[in-house]
Amino acid sequence: MQKTINNKPIVKENVKKNNIVKRFSTGVVSVTIFDNEALNNEGEIVSFNSINLSKAFLDKNTNTWKHTSSLNRNDVPNALLCLFKAYEFLQLKNNETEEDKVYYPVED
Questions:
Q1: Adjacent-strand bridge partners of 81
Q2: Cα–Cα distance between 86 and 80 in angstroms, integer?
Q3: What residues contact residue 20 under an 8 Å CB cut-off, 6+ apart?
Q4: Could you give the 3-state DSSP secondary structure of residue 12?
Q5: Which of 6, 19, 33, 75 is deepest in the core (most CB within 10 A)?
Q6: In the chain, what are the domain boundaries?
Q7: CA dihedral for 45, 47, 53, 56, sign (positive or negative)
Q8: Are 34 and 52 in contact (CB under 8 A)?
Q9: What is the pTM of this model?
Q10: What is the pLDDT along the chain (108 residues), one digit of tens a residue?
């Protein structure tokens, strides 16, 4: 039996996967902004952004780079800078109107 919300079928196939919009990084800390879609209570697709904060580190046992959300004291300023830049990007993106958009010519 197909699931419904308010007698409308839920069609998850129409919901996009999370797409990376922008990444800010400094040092080993990075913030990634994602475009997301989900179904609301009415079964309609809604768009929103999410942010992921991570720190890269080298695993000495495997000699591979891994990621964690744990920060030490010295990582906090870099995290704040990346988070501020992400917030600034999202605020400017949301406040932009068609007249404000700047289009840059593509050079061959």
A1: none
A2: 10
A3: 32, 33, 34
A4: helix
A5: 33
A6: 4-95
A7: positive
A8: yes
A9: 0.70
A10: 555 555 555 555 666 778 899 999 999 999 999 998 888 888 788 888 999 999 999 999 999 999 999 999 999 999 999 999 999 999 998 776 555 555 555 554
- Evaluate whether 33 touches 51 at the Cβ level (below 8 Å): yes
- Dist. CA 87–CA 82, nearest whole Å: 9
- How far apart CA 55 and CA 53 sit, in angstroms, is 7
Q: Quick one: tokens of 100? A: 């404000």
Q: What is the DSSP string of 46-108?
A: EEEEEEEEEEEEEETTTTEEEEES---GGGHHHHHHHHHHHHHHHHHHHH--TTT---PPPP-
Whose CA is closest to 21, among 83, 89, 67, 88?
Answer: 89
